[in-house]
Write a structure and sequence with these properties.
With 907 residues, this protein is mainly beta. It is 9% helix and 22% strand. It has 8 helices and 56 strands. The protein binds 2-acetamido-2-deoxy-beta-D-glucopyranose (8 copies).
C-alpha cells in the first residue's frame, strides 16, 4: 500500500510543480493593440467553452497580460499557451501580427490544417509547440531557420509531412521532437552543427538513409530516439566514442544488427542505453574494465542475444533498471559477485533461463537486492533459491515456467512482496502451515496450475486474487466473506467447486466476482448488486434471479448464462443503469422481451439465447434507445410477430460507417499471454473465416457487431432498415417464418462477414447487391422459396452448393454447372448444410474482463523532472504492470468494449 501511495504522491508532486509554474503572476501591463488583437483572435477560434479553462476568461475588462495562458514583456505578448482548449479549425491569418511572441504553445487542439508559413517571420521565436494538433500538409521548412529557435515540438501529428533542412545558423536549437509525424528524407549532415542539441526524437517518422557521422559532434545530446524509421546504418559506422556527452541513447526498433559494441557501455556520461527491438545477436561482451556509475538504465530486450549474461554486468554499479527480456539468454549470474546495491527492476522474461546455471547452487545470501523481478517465460523448474533472502522484493513474476510441486511456505514470508504471479506453471499444492502468516501481498495470481484440494484462504490483505483454472475441488467455505474483506477482484473460475454459494460472500466488498465454470448449485445470493462484474456462467444454479437490484446497483456485467435458472426476468434490473453486458443465455427463463432495459443506454451486449422468452420484441411506448448496442442474441426462444424497422433505427453502434475493414478476431487467451511489447497484443488477428478453426477464447476488439434472431417464430418481411447496419458483422435470421424478399438494402452492409437467412419462407430473387459484400465469407440462403439466377461475383463463387440448396427456383453456379435455367431443382441437402454452417457463435464465454488498477512506482528524485524520462517512465511502468497482469492490459490498453467469445465449430 505504501508503494501505491508513493506513486500517487510522486505523480501529484509533478502536477503541482507544473501548476505552480503556470500560475506565476505577471505584472506587465497590456498594450491596447495587443489586447484587441488577442480578443479578435479569440473570436476566430472555434472552441468548446465547457472544456476551456483559458480562452473563456479572456475579456476586455481585465488586463490581457493577466489572462490565463498569456505573458507579456513591456506590454507585448511574449508567451501564449492555449494548449488543450479544444480549439477546432485553422490558425487565423491575424495571428501573423503577434510577432513579439517568443513562446507559442498550441498543443492538443484540433487545428486540422497546414502550419502557416508566417511563423518564420517571428524573429524572436524560441519555442514552438504544436504537439497533437492534427496538422497536415507540409511543414514550412523556413520556420526551422528562425535563428532564435530553441525548442520545436511537432510530435503526434500523423499527417504532417516535411523534411529537415540544412542547419546552417541554428546554433541555439536544443530540443527537436518530430516523433509520430510523417517527416521523411535523410538526416542532413549539417545536423552536427546543432551544438546545443540535447534531445532529438525522430521516432515513428519515415526517415531513411544512414545516421550521419556528424551526430558525434552533438556533444550536449542527452536523449536520442530514432525508433521506427528506416535507417540502415550498421551500428558501428558511428564513432560512439566521440559522443562524450551522450546521456541517453535510444535506438528502439530499427533494423540495427550485428553485435553490441562494448564502447557503447563506456560512454562517460551515458545514462540510458536503449537498444530494444532490433536485431542484435551474439553474446554480451565482458564488462571487465567498465565501472560506470551513471548508466542506470539498460534495455536490450527484443533482440537475438544469446549465451549467459556475464557476471561482469554488475560492474555497472549505478544500474537501476535492466531489461534483457525476449532474447535467447541461457543463464544469469544468480551467484556472481554482486556490485549494484539496488536493482530496481530486472526483467529477464522470455529467455531460455534454466535454474541450474553453471551447475552450482547460488550463494543466495550474497545476492543483490531486487525490487521488481520478472522471470516469466523461461525454463525454470523450481523456485530460485536466491529469492529467499530478498528483503525488498515488491513484484515477482514467475509465470509461464515449468515449476512443479509445492509453493514453498517462505514465499509468503517475504514481507516486502506486494504482487506475486505464479500463473501458468505446474504447481500442485501449497506448503503448510498457512495460518498465522503476516503476508502483505496485495495481488496473487495462481491461474492455470494444477492446484488441488481446498481453496487457500489466508491472504486477508489481498485486493486481487486469481485462483482460476486449477483443480480446486472443495465447496466454497461458508465463512469466505471473512477472509476477503478488501478483495476487489476474486476469481475461482474453472475449477471443480461444488455446493452452494455461501451467503457470507455478501461481505466481499469487491468489484469483480467470477465463479464461472464450476459445479455450483443452489440459488443465487441476493446481495450481489454492489459488484460491477458478476460472472456465474456455467454452473448448476437454480431458482429465479433475485429481483433485488436496488437503486445503488453498480453492475456493469451480469453473466448468469448456462445454468438452470428459472422464473422471470428480474424487473429491478432497471435500477442498474450502468449495465453494459447482460448474458442470461441457456437458462429456462420464461418472460416477455425485457423492454425495461430500453432505458439503459450503456447496454452493448444482450444475450437471451435459449430461454423461453415469448411475444413481440417491439417496445411500443419506449422509443428504443441502445445507441451502444453491438451484440444482440435472441436465438432459440419463442419470440414472434413482425420486427418493426423503426425499432432498429436507434442502434447507432451498428450503423457507424467505419473505414470498411473487417473486424479482427483475436485469440486473447494465448496471444495476450505472449510476452512482448504492448503492440504485440494487438498484432495477430485471426478472422472467423478459416474453416474448421477452433478458437478457444476470442477477444473481439473494438467493434464487433452481431444480430442473431434465429430459431424463433418471427414472421413478416425482413425490415429494409437492417441495411443501415453498415458496421454489422454477423446477421442470423434463420429458422423463422420470414416472408417476402431479401431487402436489396443488404448490399449496404459492407462489413458483413456472415449472413444466414436459411429456413424461412423468403421468396423472389437474390438481390444482385449482395454480390457487393466483399467480406462475406459465410452465406446460407438454403431452404427458402428463392428463385432466379444466383448472382455472379468472385465472392459468390466461393460459397458451396449447400448455401443455396432447398430453394425452388435458384439456378446458376455453384448449384448448376452451366447457366441454363430450368434444370431440376437439387434436393435440399440438409445434412451437408448442417456440416458447413461453420460459424456458430457459442456464448459460453462472453464476459467483460475485469478492471483492476494498482499503482506502482518509486520516486527516483530528480529524474522525475526530466520530461523525457517521465514519458518513458510512464510507458515502462505500464509495460511492467501489463506483463505481470495481462488482464489489466485488456482493460487499460483498450478502452473500448471487451468481449470474449468462445467459438467452437459445431459438428
Ligand atoms: C463540449 O464539451 C462537453 C464536455 O466535454 C461535452 O459534453 C459537449 O458535448 C461539448 N460540446 C460540443 C458542442 O462539442
Ligand atoms: C516512407 O518513405 C518511402 C520512401 O522513402 C515511401 O515509399 C513510403 O510510402 C513512406 N511511408 C509513409 C508511411 O509515408
Ligand atoms: C565536427 O565538428 C568539427 C568542427 O567543430 C568539424 O571539423 C568536423 O568535421 C565535424 N565532424 C563531423 C563528423 O561533422
Ligand atoms: C495462531 O496464533 C494465535 C495467537 O496469535 C494462536 O493462539 C494460535 O494457536 C495460532 N494458530 C496456529 C495454528 O498456530
Ligand atoms: C445439476 O443439478 C441437478 C439436480 O439439481 C443434478 O441432477 C445434476 O447432476 C447437476 N449437474 C451437474 C453438472 O452438477
Ligand atoms: C429500484 O430500487 C429501489 C430501492 O432502492 C426499489 O424500491 C425499486 O423497487 C427498484 N426498482 C424496481 C423497478 O424494482
Ligand atoms: C416515441 O416517438 C413517438 C414519435 O416518434 C412520440 O410520439 C412518442 O412520444 C415517443 N415516446 C417516448 C416515450 O419518447
Ligand atoms: C456495388 O457498389 C458500387 C460502388 O461501390 C456501385 O457502383 C454498384 O452499383 C454496386 N452494385 C450493386 C449491384 O449494387
Amino acid at each position: 500500500m505504501r508503494t501505491l501511495l508513493h506513486f500517487f504522491l510522486f505523480m501529484m508532486t509533478i502536477n503541482l510543480i507544473q501548476l505552480y509554474f503556470e500560475a506565476i503572476p505577471v505584472q506587465s501591463r497590456c498594450d491596447e493593440d495587443q489586447q484587441s488583437l488577442l480578443l479578435r483572435l479569440k473570436e476566430t477560434f472555434i472552441f468548446n467553452s465547457s472544456r476551456s479553462s483559458k480562452l473563456i476568461y479572456w475579456n476586455s475588462s481585465t488586463d490581457c497580460c493577466s489572462w490565463a495562458g498569456v505573458r507579456c514583456t513591456d506590454g507585448l505578448v511574449t508567451r501564449l499557451d492555449i494548449s488543450g482548449e479544444s480549439i477546432s479549425g485553422p490558425i487565423h491569418q491575424s495571428f501573423a501580427k503577434l510577432q513579439s511572441l517568443s513562446v507559442l504553445i498550441l498543443d492538443d487542439n484540433d487545428i486540422s490544417a497546414p502550419v502557416p508559413g508566417f511563423f518564420a517571420n517571428f524573429s524572436s521565436l524560441t519555442s514552438l509547440s504544436l504537439r497533437g494538433c492534427n496538422l497536415y500538409g507540409t511543414f514550412p521548412e523556413e520556420i526551422f531557420q528562425v535563428t532564435t529557435l530553441q525548442e520545436v515540438d511537432l510530435s503526434d501529428n500523423p499527417r504532417l509531412q516535411g523534411s529537415l533542412p540544412e542547419f546552417l545558423n541554428n546554433g541555439s536549437l536544443q530540443y527537436l521532437d518530430l516523433s509520430s509525424s510523417k517527416f521523411s528524407g535523410f538526416l542532413p549532415k549539417s545536423i552536427g552543427n546543432l551544438k546545443m542539441l540535447s534531445e532529438l526524437d525522430l521516432s515513428g517518422c519515415n526517415f531513411t538513409g544512414s545516421i550521419p557521422n556528424s551526430v558525434a559532434n552533438l556533444t550536449q545530446l542527452n536523449f536520442l530516439e530514432l525508433s521506427l524509421n528506416s535507417f540502415n546504418s550498421p551500428i558501428d559506422s558511428i564513432h560512439w566514442e566521440n559522443l562524450v556527452n551522450l546521456e541517453f541513447l535510444e535506438l528502439y526498433s530499427n533494423l540495427l544488427h550485428g553485435s553490441i559494441p562494448l564502447s557503447l557501455f563506456s560512454l562517460p556520461v551515458l545514462k540510458d542505453l536503449i537498444l530494444s527491438q532490433n536485431q542484435f545477436s551474439g553474446q554480451l561482451p565482458e564488462f571487465a574494465n567498465i565501472s560506470s556509475n551513471l548508466l542506470w538504465n539498460i534495455d536490450l530486450s527484443g533482440n537475438y542475444l544469446e549465451g549467459p549474461i556475464p557476471t561482469s554486468i554488475f560492474n555497472l554499479r549505478g544500474l537501476l533498471w535492466l531489461q534483457l527480456s525476449s532474447n535467447h539468454f541461457s543463464g544469469f549470474p544468480f551467484n556472481g559477485p554482486q556490485q549494484p546495491k539496488n536493482l530496481f527492476f530486472l526483467d529477464l522474461s522470455n529467455n531460455n533461463l534454466l535454474d541450474d546455471y553453471n551447475g552450482s547452487s547460488p550463494t543466495s545470501s550474497s545476492f543483490l537486492q531486487i525490487y521488481n523481478l520478472v522471470l516469466s517465460s523461461n525454463k525454470l523448474r523450481a523456485f530460485p533459491d536466491f529469492l529467499r533472502n530478498q528483503s525488498r522484493l515488491t513484484y515477482l513474476d514467475l509465470s509461464e515456467n515449468q515449476i512443479q510441486g509445492e509453493i514453498p511456505n517462505w514465499i509468503w514470508k517475504l514481507n516486502s512482496l506486494l504482487a506475486l504471479n505464479l500463473s501458468y506453471n505446474s504447481l500442485t499444492t501449497l506448503q503448510g502451515p498457512l495460518h498465522n502468516l503476516t503476508s502483505n501481498l496485495l495481488a496473487l495470481d495462481l491461474r492455470s496450475n494444477n492446484l488441488q484440494g481446498k481453496i487457500p484462504l489466508f491472504l486477508s490483505s489481498a485486493t486481487y486474487l486469481d485462483y482460476s483454472r486449477n483443480n480446486f475441488s472443495s465447496t466454497i467455505p461458508a465463512d469466505i466473506g471473512n477472509f476477503l474483506p478488501s478483495t476487489a477482484f476474486f476469481s475461482l473460475s474453472s475449477n471443480n467447486l461444488h455446493g452452494i454459494i455461501p451467503p457470507s460472500i455478501c461481505n466481499v466488498s469487491g468489484l469483480v466476482l467470477d465463479l464461472s465454470n464450476n459445479s455450483l448449485s443452489g440459488m443465487i445470493p441476493e446481495c450481489l448488486t454492489r459488484l460491477s462484474v458478476l460472472n456465474l456462467r456455467r454452473n448448476n444454479l437454480t431458482g429465479p434471479i433475485p429481483d433485488k437490484f436496488n437503486e445503488f446497483c453498480g453492475l456493469q456485467t451480469l453473466d448468469l448464462s448456462r445454468n438452470q435458472i428459472q422464473g422471470q426476468f428480474p424487473k429491478s434490473l432497471v435500477n442498474c443503469t450502468q449495465l453494459e453486458v447482460v448474458n442470461l443465455g441457456n437458462n429456462q427463463i420464461t418472460d416477455t422481451f425485457p423492454c425495461l432495459l430500453k432505458n439503459i443506454s450503456t447496454l452493448c451486449v444482450l444475450v437471451l439465447r435459449s430461454n423461453k422468452f415469448y411475444g413481440r420484441i417491439g417496445c411500443p411506448e419506449a422509443n428504443g434507445t441502445w445507441p451502444m448496442l453491438q451484440i444482440i442474441d435472441l436465438a432459440y426462444n419463442n419470440l414472434s410477430g413482425e420486427i418493426a424497422g423503426t425499432s432498429l433505427t436507434t442502434w447507432k453502434a451498428m450503423m457507424v460507417d467505419k473505414d470498411g475493414s473487417p473486424v479482427h478476431f483475436e485469440f486473447s487467451y494465448h496471444q495476450v499471454r505472449r510476452r512482448g511489447p504492448i503492440s504485440d497484443y494487438y498484432g495477430d488477428a485471426v478472422t472467423i473465416t478459416s474453416k474448421g478453426l477452433e478458437m478457444d477464447l476470442v477477444k473481439i476488439r473494438n467493434f464487433f457487431t452481431l444480430i442473431d434472431f434465429s430459431c424463433n417464430e418471427f414472421n413478416g418481411s425482413i425490415p429494409e432498415e437492417m441495411g443501415e447496419f453498415k458496421s454489422l458483422h454477423v446477421l442470423n435470421l434463420s429458422c423463422n417464418a420470414f416472408t417476402g424478399e431479401i431487402p436489396s438494402s443488404f448490399g449496404n452492409m459492407r462489413v458483413l462477414e456472415s449472413l444466414d437467412l436459411s429456413k424461412n419462407n423468403l421468396s423472389g430473387q437474390i438481390p444482385p447487391q449482395l454480390a457487393n459484400l466483399t467480406f462475406l465469407s459465410f452465406l446460407n440462403l438454403s431452404n427458402n422459396q428463392l428463385v432466379g439466377r444466383i448472382p455472379t461475383s468472385t465472392q459468390f463463387s466461393t460459397f458451396p452448393k449447400a448455401s443455396f440448396a432447398g430453394n425452388k427456383g435458384l439456378w446458376g453456379p455453384p448449384l448448376t454447372a452451366d447457366d441454363k435455367a430450368g434444370l431440376p431443382v437439387p434436393p435440399a441437402a440438409s445434412n451437408e448444410s448442417r456440416q458447413s454452417s461453420g460459424h456458430e457463435i457459442n456464448w459460453d464465454l462472453i464476459s467483460v474482463e475485469i478492471g483492476f488498477v494498482f499503482g506502482f512506482g518509486v520516486a527516483i528524485g530528480s529524474l522525475a523532472f526530466y520530461k523525457r524520462w517521465r514519458n518513458w517512465y510512464y510507458k515502462a511502468t505500464l509495460n511492467i504492470i501489463f506483463k505481470m497482469f495481462p488482464q489489466l492490459h485488456q482493460r487499460l490498453g483498450n478502452r473500448g468494449r471487451h468481449v470474449y467469445i468462445n467459438q467452437r465449430r459445431r459438428r
